[in-house]
Every structure is written in C-alpha cells, then in structure tokens.
Write a structure and sequence with these properties.
disordered C terminus, 18% strand, alpha+beta, 4-stranded antiparallel sheet, 28% helix, ADP-ribosylation fold, elongated, 200 residues, 6 helices, 3-stranded antiparallel sheet, disordered N terminus, Arc Repressor Mutant, subunit A
C-alpha cells in the first residue's frame, strides 16, 4: 500500500499533470509489481487494470486524467494503443521489455546531455545504459542540454552516430523521438573544450 499517495476521504481533486506523469513513470517503467500491475512483453498494461490498481493503492485516477497526461506530456513519454485499451511508456524502462522498435539509420550526429561529474567515467567507458536497457540520445543540442540540466550544469556531448551505424552499431527511434542504442564507445564521442569540441 502506498500510504504516501493516499488522499483524504472524499478528496477527488485533479492532481497536477507532473505528479501523474511521475506516477506513471514509476509503474510503467520501473516498478509495476508494486501496485500489482502486469506488463506484457512489449511493455503494455491494460488501461482498465492500471486505473483499478491505482485506485486500490491510494492514487485514484480518472480516464480523463490519464488521457490528458498522455496527450499533454511535453516529451510524449506515454502512448495508448490504437484502440485505447492499453498504455505503455515509450522508453526508459528498467524492467525487461521489448518495445518492438525496428532498426533505423540515425542522422550523422546525435547528442547526449550529462553533467561534469560524469565526464571522467564517460571518457574511460563511453556511454552505457546503466539501469536502463539502452543509451538515450537526442536529435538536437537543445533537448540534450535540457536532459543534462536535470542533474546540474549541462554538458552536451556529440555522438558520431552516422559513423557508428556504418560500423555496425544498431539504432532505434522511439515513438517520442528519442534515439536508442546499446552503448556508445568513447571514440565516437566529441567532448566540449575551450576551443570547441574535441575527440578524446
């Protein structure tokens, strides 16, 4: 039982969309079992089961709230199936799922946002998925900078994605525009320096 999510008796006020989005991220990406939710192999949960499980665990949601969160999320983190009976996170899972995304040739350059404290490890090891199942890359610097800024001062790395693809690395393009790949060796990264970007 998630006591910290419970509402006072009779309270039915709409929650802030950000709070609903974080709740969905927790249970559609990372910990569905906590509320007894079952994801299929593709990461889909039945919409009615999500609503019932959320209500049973102290976080009642209406279908309208769920639809608004999916439609209005600026990063398009979630999607309904075509018939609306299922919902899933578009990427970012730490539980094992197969999103069924086809391999897709990337643009010549992609970008990754991080912070200075991770640069030494990245120079040594490249980009690894860590708890996630893939490394997340952005199509433009601005998006990558916003991602990096979540943890502090943003540093944007340039990924030679086209060259990686030519040399056999596989990329996938998620429904919300995020590029995914298994890892990025350091030799394909350009690090910012005082005189512009430079290779390690």
């Amino acid at each position: 039982m998630e006591a910290h999510e419970e509402q006072p008796p009779g309270q039915t006020a709409r929650r802030a969309p950000v709070r609903v989005s974080k709740y969905l991220a927790r249970h559609l990406r990372h910990d569905p079992e906590r509320i007894g939710l079952v994801l299929d192999a593709g990461g889909w949960a039945r919409t009615d089961e999500l609503l019932a499980a959320s209500a049973a665990h102290g976080f009642p949601l209406t279908r309208a709230e769920l639809e608004a969160t999916v439609a209005d999320n600026d990063k398009q983190r979630y999607a309904f199936s075509a018939d609306g009976t299922r919902i899933r996170a578009n990427q970012g899972h730490t539980v094992a799922v197969d999103l069924g995304l086809p391999a897709s040739p990337p643009p010549p350059a992609l970008f990754h946002g991080t912070t200075p404290r991770f640069l030494a490890a990245i120079r040594d090891e490249g980009l690894r998925p860590m708890a996630r199942h893939a490394v997340h890359l952005s199509s433009d610097r601005e998006t990558a900078a916003r991602v990096g800024a979540r943890r502090g001062r943003a540093v944007v790395l340039t990924v030679a994605a086209g060259l990686m693809h030519e040399r056999g690395h596989t990329f996938q393009h998620s429904a919300n525009g995020v590029w995914l790949t298994d890892s990025v060796p350091a030799r394909y990264l350009a690090f910012p320096g005082r005189h512009g970007e430079r290779r390690p």
